[in-house]
Design brief:
alpha/beta, FAD/NAD(P)-binding domain, 2 domains, seven-stranded mixed sheet, five-stranded parallel sheet, 9 helices, 25% helix, globular, binds flavin-adenine dinucleotide
Length: 405
Amino acid sequence: MGKKIHTLIIGAGQAGLAASEHLSNHKIDHLILERHRMVESWRTSRWDSLVANGPAWHDKFPTLEFTDVNQDSFVSKDRVVEYFEEFAKKIKAPIIENINVFEVIKDSKDNFLIQTSDEEYEAKNVIAATGAFQVPVIPKIIPNHSNLEQLHSKFYKKPEQLKKGAVLVVGSGSSGSQIAEELNKANKKVYFSIGPHDRPPRKYRGKDNVWWLGVLGKWEAKTPKPGTQHVTIAVSGYDGGKTIDFRKFAHSGITLLGMTKKYENGKLYFSNDLKINIENGDKNYLDLLNEADEYIKKNNLSFPEEPEARNIIFEHSCITKPLLELNIEELDITSVIWATGYKHDFSWMKVDVIGDDGKPIHQNGIAKTPGIYFLGLPWLSMRGSSFIWGVWKDAKYVVEHIANR
Ligand SMILES: Cc1cc2nc3c(=O)[nH]c(=O)nc-3n(C[C@H](O)[C@H](O)[C@H](O)COP(=O)(O)OP(=O)(O)OC[C@H]3O[C@@H](n4cnc5c(N)ncnc54)[C@H](O)[C@@H]3O)c2cc1C
């Protein structure tokens, strides 16, 4: 017989903490089991210079402010950790650290048995808050190559960590673009492989991108627009926050390339899709400006005009005549950073709530087996679900369901 608890939360990241606050509000007995330390991902799975993607007034829970910072600034990852430590203290979150959950099974009484590296637990409800960005994904393109160090963005910390020589960064989302820029500033020769991406304006007519996403209903969108499921978003709070414009990257010395396709005999090959990817990124950027202008007009707002935001910087030859192959030795490329995303790992979940594709089966976080819940997954209930702002709302919804069981 395991130790009895009403609701067990697995994972003490922001999702687990948000759930804990709502459970306490409902006076529901609960525990959070965390295999490392609380908010471990923000501590150790990010590069040193990372700042939040949204300003301090936005990337937070509604029940705790960042009191000591400019509300429009982008706080450092270390400040995010402090924020959640303060939050955990404030809500008296019942976290037990250094306990790994190995298995969750259903017992005969419709409760769940939880095997851990410590005790066994028995719970009426289990909230899986183990994170969406768990297992780094590296496409199988380049075999192990003695002269080429390959690492995922999860393990990138700072430029000095890389070998001397040039670097290829693969993946043009927020991680890849921020890392490519940092390496270029550190005087590394950077080759940057760019796929389909959205690149919203950081700020437009006085308002930050996250504000526009809110008023235009995009944070709360229920599903991605058809065809955009795999489009990554390049947005950055780096350097005080600025719009990502890959043409500017090219003009600052970064060599842009299309999608990384294959490796053969010391050469890397790239798709001839750089121009179209850049153009589609521009379209996404300009569409958002148009929607913002329409919103301002419709609501009679007196926001400052910003016509210069529509000026697209002149083309660079690396975009009009992109390189389609690179010789690793000739160009002295010694490192590859794969900023190519993550996948889930629910191998410990032995209740029948995971589909054949490895993805949880749920509706807004509520699994088909009563008592199992998920939080923090992309598009769990809306676009904002995997972000600090959104997970708090999802946690409220899920906990209300628990309270009414
Ligand atoms: C590079 C990067 C930058 C990001 N920047 C932002 C940003 O600026 N703003 C924003 O809103 N969002 C951002 N996000 C998205 C999201 O906010 C973070 O990924 C956040 O860490 C997700 O929180 P979480 O609680 O869902 O998962 P996690 O923070 O990953 O927490 C899950 C916890 O579960 C624990 N765990 C996992 N498995 C087990 C197990 N079997 N037993 C016990 N414990 C377990 C882990 O150790 C971990 O501590 C970013 C994501 C990435 C990858």
